[in-house]
Design a protein that fits this description.
The chain is of the alpha/beta class. The protein is 35% helix and 20% strand. The chain is built from 14 helices and 15 strands. The strands form two sheets. The chain has a nine-stranded mixed β-sheet with strand order 14-13-12-11-7-10-9-8-15, with helices on both faces. A six-stranded parallel β-sheet has the order 3-2-1-4-5-6, with helices on one face. Helix 1 links the parallel strand 1 and strand 2.
């Protein structure tokens, strides 16, 4: 199968925070790979912007080092790197002052897409937005990309949305969640809505429960100040896991259209029930196997912030009534593993007898480290010893069927190109963000009011024992991450 690369319209992409870590690790390599694929039209430009007093030559050297470190084998072709660098420019700007804005305005070219990427602290959004408007840098083809966190709670999220709305139309705002750019996440929608095989079974009548796990082996890794104020609930559940839950649980949209898709996701968030205290387990990693503890990493010996959280929640709608959703995320765990597991119910009548055991079909969508989809099916165990059943995986990773076209681009490659195309399908809308916080805030206030402390768990383990006990009380087991 031959993959098609469709060039996007001519564009100028201005990256505020263009010398930062996100630009270095993700944005610059993603654009370079799209350039190498031929998706960037001749004349498209990347303009880095930050407070550093650099020249174009300084920034191009920064870009070269970024590509050498993070762009893989493509960066070994020096001619490609140098051709890409000729598309790169730099301007020194002050988000809260006048410096550099006239120069940036003079760089802009009319009659092309303008995308402004806010790869900066949210505290700078207001100043950047005001100056983009004051210097008439926005036009009908302009878009603004904002990174999480989208607020710290409902109140701050509403304030942030209101601030952006003063300067931009909602159709111009792209709230980026890189999880939605993963190829397998998008394949989830294709599997669900493009195959008659699954959609009739996608409900409480046939599905026993659904698990969503995002586990990391790393600790807070230099993000201690941010993480101490956020915790796993704000950092992961309110956005990444919430978006995965929405795609798993949403109704089929009328069309594959940005607002139609986001309307259905919003219905899922609003259908989430309150979470009971005994269905919440918070944890905090301790020192083990040569690793430091969370409290050491954040330099706070009395920290009560969670680095792990597990939840059991329900949706109050017809499709999912009675089907539990188990969400789990944590740092410094035994494996790096992000996956969604849909566990189907047992057959209504076991014709093979008790000795055949209990068996459930499982559909597993693996997001990292290796993207793919597998379906567990029950077959006869080979041999003459009677009807013994065994579960085996049916590989649906598509790698052999699609060949080279199955190579998954980085999520930022897809999402940045969607910004240029003006496609908001994989980006969060303002009401989505606020609905997610409206569900999250009472959970956080609840454990704060109760004075709950996170349960300790060893670094490089599967998390606190209480999380295992929570799901075992329901006669179920966590899939994936093990001790």
């Amino acid at each position: 199968m031959v993959s098609r690369t469709i060039p996007v319209d001519l564009f100028d992409l201005v990256v505020f925070g263009g010398t930062g870590d996100l630009a270095r690790r993700k944005i610059l390599p993603a654009l370079f790979k799209r350039f190498c694929s031929g998706q960037m039209a001749d004349g498209a430009r990347l303009i880095g912007a930050s407070r550093r007093d650099w020249s174009d030559a300084d920034y191009r050297e920064f870009v070269r080092k970024s590509l050498s470190e993070f762009a893989g084998e493509l960066a070994l072709d020096r001619s490609l790197v140098e051709t890409f660098c000729r598309c790169v420019h730099y301007v020194s700007v002050d988000a809260n002052g006048p410096r550099g804005w006239d120069e940036l305005s003079g760089l802009m070219v009319a009659d092309r897409v303008r995308a402004f990427y806010f790869s900066v602290d949210p505290g700078l959004f207001s100043g950047l937005s005001m100056r983009l408007q004051d210097h008439e840098l926005m036009n009908e083809q302009s878009r603004v990309v904002v990174e999480k966190p989208f607020g710290h709670d409902l109140e701050t999220a509403q304030a942030l949305n209101a601030e952006l709305a003063q300067h931009f139309d909602e159709s111009q705002i792209y709230r980026i969640d890189h999880y939605l750019g993963k190829e397998t996440v998008q394949n989830l929608m294709a599997v669900r809505f493009g195959n008659m095989l699954f959609e009739p079974l996608w409900n409480a009548q046939y599905i026993d429960h659904i698990q969503i796990t995002v586990a990391e082996t790393v600790g807070v890794d230099g993000r201690g100040e941010y993480y101490e104020s956020a915790g796993a609930m704000r950092d992961m559940v309110q956005n990444h896991l919430m978006q995965l839950l929405c795609l798993i649980a949403m109704e089929p949209p009328t069309f594959f259209d940005p607002d139609a898709v986001r309307d259905e996701k919003l219905k899922v968030i609003r259908a989430l029930s309150n979470v009971e205290p005994h269905h919440i387990v918070r944890g905090q990693y301790t020192a083990a196997d040569g690793a430091t503890s969370y409290r050491e990493d954040v330099d706070n010996p009395r920290s009560r912030t969670e680095s792990f959280i597990a939840l059991k929640c329900h949706l109050n709608n017809w499709r999912w009534a009675g089907t539990p959703f188990y969400l789990r995320t944590g740092k410094r765990m035994s494996e790096r593993d992000s996956e969604i597991t849909v566990v189907f119910k047992e057959t209504p009548h076991a014709i093979f007898g008790q000795e055949a055991g209990r068996h459930n079909n499982e559909l597993t969508i693996q997001l990292q480290p290796d993207e793919g989809i597998t379906l567990g099916v029950t077959i006869k165990d080979p041999g003459p010893g009677g009807m013994r059943l065994v579960d085996v995986p049916l590989d649906m990773s598509f790698a052999e069927a699609l060949g080279p076209s199955a190579d998954s681009p980085d999520a930022y490659e897809r999402l940045i190109m969607d910004v240029i195309r003006g496609d908001q399908t994989l980006f969060m809308r303002n009401d989505e963000v606020e609905a997610a916080w409206a569900w999250t805030d009472p959970i956080i206030r609840g454990w704060q009011a109760r004075g709950d402390a996170p349960k300790p768990y060893d670094s490089y383990s599967a998390g606190p024992d209480d999380a295992t006990m929570m799901i075992r009380r329901d006669g179920r087991e966590w899939r994936g991450v093990i001790n």
